[in-house]
Amino acid sequence: MRIFFMHVGSFVAVIVYFALAGTREYTPAGVRTALIIALGVETGYVWLARRAGELKHFDPGIWLLFAVGAVATTTRFRPVAFLFERYSPALLFTTLGLAALFPPLLGREPFTYYYARRQTPPWQQRLPEFVAINRVMTGYWVLLFFTAAGLAASAPTDWRFTALFPNLLTFGAGMTATLWLPLLYLKLFPPGLPTTIEPLLMGMPFAFDRKAAGDGRAVIQFRVSGAEPGDYHLRIAGGRCESFAGPAPAPDLVVHTPDTVWVRIARGELDGGQALQDGLYRVEGDLAVLAKMDEWFSSRRGARRTG
Is the pLDDT of residue 195 over 70? Predict the structure, then answer.
């Protein structure tokens, strides 16, 4: 159901509208009927999405588009009715662009938060980069939507400009952006080390040096105390490092540390070896694993140092 709400549901009414209006060649009567039916479908979807907690920014916008069109065509208000009869694709993409643009301008969350929260671990959502990347993604989508609207408006009777090119733009350049745009942003604006313990530990796989680790294997448990207590562990095997929240069943090394101590060690503000000697944190298990952590994790990319 979540996949339906995320990727399909909002556009069921859109598909219904264009199918019905296109069948009747966008005649006034055909457009009016298509708008009324689409408005009914969208109203039902909005009700379902709201009950399921899956209402998106686009849903009220699409509902408003069909509501305005239904009222205009029913009352025969020709200036607006004519726009739906001739420029329906351009109106749709303009609506999507406005739904993406206005919330950030009004100080509200961008529409991309809905998708990002369902595809990003909670600890990443608390990082400043999460906010920045979502704003960049939103700006990118706004540009795509308005470009698609311009294409559709430039040739309202040419299916290539009303359907083919705009959809290639949104589905091609748009849907694939999640694969490359965040990575490009992080490359251009490398993030600093987190200042809180959860993203610091859960993000350690990003600082993992698989070449240095080779065929090394280890399970490292962190038992964190302080203002942000919690259990986290790393699993290293086969040149990969994975992070998990919660206790590990059989860790090779257990690190008992206050949250502030480990954050300071990771940020280079405290020598890890000296902190261990001073009793600021303690370890249990295989000390050889502790010694190898300097090799396995690069401090320049977010790892801790043992000194």
Answer: yes
